[in-house]
């Protein structure tokens, strides 16, 4: 059970393994692009290529869906970024249980956007966890986990790809240990839990009076979506890539203090943020050199 690109490496490894993939359950096709054409999920596209049976319920908890899944007599359900909540009727269908792959080291960062919030909060490590699903929000017993370092160059997209592949291996190892009787589920310590709520577009508004590191981490954590952004002369710009530059003085927050082909230097609460890639509204992402070729930007103007 899965929908976006994050689910694909796990499905691919399951398909190539000795395990039998009986059915792929994924979200209904959604309109996408400028033409708003109905588009299948990445998981559905893979299943079609490999001729795996597909189910696309609008509501996976409907009696008809529960009946269909129950008739499979599956050993386990593997759930990776499916996008719908499973209730008790579904969770009790497999012979063993439902296994969920979550992109954090539980109990930290329960919720919808763990990859983004780990970067926004300046974490230097995160990971993936397989858990035995229950009816709570990422509260099930931990089966296995695997750590990953977050580099200074990572953004949400690069970390997403790393964790998707790391997670696919963890799912296969979880199944191997389940088959061998080696799994020892561990109850989560809720006192150590933190949460990663779903992101909204307005979360990306840059507050230039914050420390440079917080702004830098916000940009990294929100790339590519929803994107950190700011306004310059009432025009909206996505800030896609930044660096931090130490300097001897403190500049006025949001004010452009230096412009070069490498980047636009902007004042913050302490150090400078150097914008090296950005995206004007309605345009593609570009480096600063390309941006300056078509925009007359001067020192002293202020981002708000």
UniProtKB/TrEMBL annotation:
GO CC annotation: cytosol
InterPro entries in alphabetical order: Fmt (IPR005794), Formyl_trans_C (IPR005793), Formyl_transf_N (IPR002376), Formyl_transf_N_sf (IPR036477), Formyl_transferase-like_C_sf (IPR011034), Met-tRNA-FMT_C (IPR044135), Met-tRNA-FMT_N (IPR041711)
EC number of the protein: 2.1.2.9
Pfam families found in the cross-reference section: Formyl_trans_C (PF02911), Formyl_trans_N (PF00551)
Family listed: Belongs to the Fmt family.
Domain Formyl transferase C-terminal span(s) in chain numbering: 198-296
Record's keyword terms, sorted: Protein biosynthesis, Transferase
Gene3D superfamilies: 3.40.50.12230
Name the record gives this protein: methionyl-tRNA formyltransferase
Residue ranges occupied by any Formyl transferase N-terminal domain in the UniProt entry: 4-174
GO molecular function term, any single one: methionyl-tRNA formyltransferase activity
Species per Swiss-Prot/TrEMBL record: marine metagenome
């Amino acid at each position: 059970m899965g929908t976006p690109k994050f689910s694909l490496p796990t499905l691919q490894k399951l398909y190539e393994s000795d395990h039998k993939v009986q059915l792929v359950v994924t979200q209904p096709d959604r309109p996408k692009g400028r033409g708003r054409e109905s588009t299948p999920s990445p998981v559905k596209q893979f299943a079609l290529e490999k001729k795996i049976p597909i189910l696309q319920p609008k509501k996976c908890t409907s009696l008809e869906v529960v009946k269909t899944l129950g008739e499979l007599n599956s050993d386990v359900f593997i759930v990776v970024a499916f996008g719908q909540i499973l209730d008790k009727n579904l969770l009790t269908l497999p012979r063993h249980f439902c296994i969920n792959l979550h992109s954090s080291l539980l109990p930290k960062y329960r919720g919808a956007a763990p990859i983004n919030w780990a970067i926004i909060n300046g974490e230097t490590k995160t990971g993936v966890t397989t858990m035995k699903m229950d009816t709570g929000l990422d509260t099930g017993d931990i089966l296995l986990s695997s750590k990953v370092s977050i580099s200074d160059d990572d953004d949400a997209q690069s970390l997403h790809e790393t964790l998707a592949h790391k997670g696919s291996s963890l799912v296969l190892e979880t199944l191997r240990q389940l088959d061998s009787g080696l799994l020892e589920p561990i109850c989560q310590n809720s006192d150590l839990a933190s949460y990663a709520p779903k992101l909204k577009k307005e979360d990306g508004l840059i507050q230039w009076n914050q420390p440079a590191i917080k702004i830098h981490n916000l940009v990294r954590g929100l790339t590519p979506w929803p994107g950190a952004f700011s306004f310059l002369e009432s025009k909206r710009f996505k800030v896609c890539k930044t660096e931090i530059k130490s300097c001897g003085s403190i500049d006025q927050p949001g004010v452009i203090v230096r412009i070069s082909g490498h980047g636009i230097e902007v004042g913050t609460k302490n150090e400078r943020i150097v914008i090296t890639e950005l995206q004007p509204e309605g345009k593609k992402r570009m480096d600063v050199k390309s941006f300056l070729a078509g925009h007359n930007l001067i020192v002293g103007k202020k981002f708000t």
